[in-house]
Amino acid sequence: MAKRRVEMMEETRAKLVAAARKAFAEKGYAAASMDELTAEVGLTRGALYHNFGDKRGLLAAVVNQIDAEMAFRAQEIGGRAGNAWEGLLIEGTAYIEMALDPEVQRIVLLDGPAVLGDPSQWPSQSSCLQATKQTVKRLIAQGVLKPVDAEAAARLLNGAALNAALWIAASEDPKDVFPKAAQAFRYLATGLLAG
After folding, report:
1. Is 57:117 a contact under the CB 8 Å cutoff?
2. Which residue spans does the record list as DNA-binding (predicted)?
3. What pLDDT is stored for residue 69 in this prediction?
């Protein structure tokens, strides 16, 4: 009986997140109606409040879901590289390129920071930082990177990729900005290479 209740709660949360993701992508956070969103999936506002506290909590869940998908996709793309250094560069560039996706732009890079605050403080960004830090530590140990503080390097790399993505999302011509941002990211990162 308890298992069925947990499954129902997870199903309710998933329905609300999916409906919110669609509404936030199409209309933006401010214009998305919680009454329309909940009615669309056959739920009440009470279900939304019970599961997420409020509209802001629901946005946080949607951002977390998309951000996790972005991180997975970037890591997957980076993992195809011939070595860890190229993988790190490709992963950062892939993250920056995802700023061209209209859903990512609106929800994660525009509405997310406006409503949830500094993206570098989001839990999903913290896990990305830890993964980057581990890669940087390995590359330092292998002599690929200069012997710098691994956390400092990881924070600067992640910050550069995040700020490039934010720049792309906020620009009038994201497709024009992307190659400039990607090239600058690569040039900045290569400054870490050992001799």
Report:
1. no
2. 33-52
3. 94
